[in-house]
Design brief:
Elements lengths: L5 H5 L5 H8 L4 H6 L7 H15 L9
Length: about 60
């Protein structure tokens, strides 16, 4: 059986992407849409995961 909270296991450093965006003086949305040049592959993967998680629909938040 699949783990119930696999997303929590996928996020190793909660808040890391937000801290990187703030360090670059950008909002998280702007950082995801237009990442600065020279960022690491890890940061690109964090951006990709964030976009994926944002695409999920949560039934408790009014989505069906």
């Amino acid at each position: 059986m699949a783990k119930k909270k696999w997303i929590a296991g996928a996020i190793k450093n909660p808040g890391a992407l937000t801290r990187k965006a703030k360090a670059a003086h950008m909002s998280l949305g702007a950082f995801e849409a237009h990442p600065p040049k020279g960022i690491s592959r890890r940061t690109m993967r964090e951006i990709s995961l964030a976009k994926t998680l944002k695409s999920f629909h949560h039934p408790h938040m009014g989505h069906k």
